[in-house]
TrEMBL record:
EC number: 3.6.5.4
Boundaries of every SRP54-type proteins GTP-binding domain copy: 267-280
Official protein name in the record: Signal recognition particle protein
Higher taxonomy: Bacteria, Pseudomonadati, Balneolota, Balneolia, Balneolales
UniProt similarity note: Belongs to the GTP-binding SRP family. SRP54 subfamily.
UniProt keyword Phosphoprotein present: no
Name of the gene: ffh
Binding-site residues for GTP, renumbered to this chain: 107-114, 188-192, 246-249
Length: 439
């Protein structure tokens, strides 16, 4: 996600990093490059313009700082402006004082509305709520079945009826929720091909009838400025409460994410990054800005890790990384933990510099199977001291794991590179902490 934009911004910062201090000339050049990068990423013109003029003003106003390079200084200024464009603070959904909280989910067909409704139910359930779903997307025949299937996977009840009457489904669902003591009701409304009067009218009537607590509008981030325009149009009439950005795992250039807050003047409340039920996350402007700037989303990674990780193990790992004594045994243990945390590809994307290093290489969970088999065929001593694995040992391991010597060689080589990268990351973290001091 956003790789192209990250690369271009990084190269813009590089152009000043060789300079001893920020002068008028290199500021203007760099700001121009930043603006071009934003426009290439399909950021709304006005948003790109105001963001870059704020960057320019700050860069010129600050002058040089003795303790950091101009490149670092610029990165920090752009980071602050990005956070501000993305909405500054995380905005949560509102819960009603009197249950059930009713959340309407609206969006165009294919935006990921039904999938998101179910994901939100799961997310709320994981937060200790007791949610229920309602299938008010009554025009697309498969939508009700789709919601039922997703809901049964996450074990959340769904209210639906045979008639094509969205208002009735919604109304009945509220009574059902009250009866069953469900504290949140999520209503999946009908999507259309375009935002039209029908769609807005229906959402508006459901909202009134059920006295909805929140209306969330779902947009597909891959559609760029179309997503932004659709949200603007819908908001004019509906005045909704928040945006959900889906398909951020895809090949999106980032324009929708960066522009929508300013253009529509509504916060992004959630992002969705995949088809699986656990690929949903509240939206944090600061983390997104870090990701765009190639700083990686370390905080989310850490949180995910905290949800699944064994604290004692994690602390041990940290000290091993710091002392660079991380071995294949630890690596194997990590693989098992990572498998619990979700898809490899998502996780890799959160580590600074990692997605760039891997380029377009496909990483899926099967990729790790031969790796596991190879490590399984090693003795404990070999796992602890991979450097002793020479010719005959490599042959034995390949035979034992049903792989080839070449695969064993590759793994050992990659492990060596990974250790080197971790060393760099430890250094980067130190540099990051130094940057924090600038705040
Ligand atoms: P709806 O018509 O708006 O209800 O859209 P659906 O929920 O049926 O989603 C349309 C398609 O997009 C489905 O194939 C979903 O699996 C897929 N989808 C939804 N959200 C995401 C996402 O965040 N990432 C990816 N890659 N696919 C998604």
């Amino acid at each position: 996600m956003f790789e192209d934009l990250s690369t271009k911004l990084e190269s813009a910062f590089k152009s000043v990093s060789g300079q001893a201090r920020l002068s008028d000339i290199n500021v203007a050049e760099t700001v121009r490059e930043i603006r071009r990068a934003l426009l290439d990423a399909d950021v709304n013109y006005e948003v790109a313009r105001s963001l870059t003029s704020a960057v320019k003003e700050k860069a010129l106003g600050q002058g040089g700082l003795a303790s950091v390079t101009p490149g670092q200084q610029f990165t920090k200024i752009v980071y602050d402006e990005l956070v501000s464009a993305l909405g500054q603070e995380q905005e949560e959904i509102t819960f009603s004082q009197v249950p059930p909280t009713v959340i309407l989910i609206a969006g165009l067909q294919g935006s990921g509305k039904t999938t998101f409704s179910a994901k939100l139910a799961k997310w709320l359930k994981d937060q200790g709520k007791n949610p229920m779903l309602a299938a008010a997307d009554v025009y697309r025949p498969a939508a009700v079945d789709q919601l039922r299937t997703l809901a049964s996977d996450i074990d959340v009840p769904v209210h639906s009826i045979a008639e094509k009457d969205a208002l009735r489904v919604a109304k009945e669902a509220v009574s059902e929720a009250k009866k069953a003591a469900r504290d949140v009701l999520i209503i999946d409304t009908a999507g259309r091909m375009h935002v039209d009067e029908h769609m807005m009218d229906e959402v508006s009537r459901i909202r009134q009838t059920v006295n909805a607590t929140e209306v969330l509008f779902v947009v597909d981030a891959m559609t760029g400025q179309d997503a932004v325009n659709t949200a603007r149009q819908f908001n004019k009439q509906i005045d909704f409460d928040g945006v959900v950005l889906t398909k951020l795992d895809g090949d999106t250039r980032g324009g929708a994410a960066i522009s929508i807050r300013n253009v529509v003047d509504k916060p992004i409340k959630f992002v969705s990054t995949g088809e699986k039920m656990d690929t949903i996350s509240p939206f944090y402007p600061d983390r997104m800005a870090q990701r765009i700037l190639g700083m990686g989303d370390v905080v989310t990674l850490v949180e995910k890790a905290q949800e699944q990780y064994d604290e004692v193990q994690a602390r041990k790992l940290q000290s091993k990384l710091a002392s660079n004594s991380f071995n294949l045994e630890d690596f194997y243990g990590q693989l098992q933990q990572i498998k619990k945390m979700g898809s490899m590809k998502d996780l890799v994307g959160m580590i600074p510099g990692m997605s760039k290093q891997l380029g377009d290489a496909e990483i899926d969970d099967d990729t790790m199977k031969p790796v596991e088999a190879i490590i399984n065929s090693m003795t404990i001593e070999e796992r602890r001291n991979p450097q002793i694995i020479k010719g005959s040992r490599r042959k034995r391991i390949a035979q034992g794991s049903g792989t080839t010597v070449r695969e064993v060689n590759d793994l050992l080589k990659q492990f060596g590179q990974m250790k080197k990268m971790m060393k760099t990351m430890t250094k980067m973290n130190k540099a990051g902490r130094a940057m924090e001091g600038l705040k």
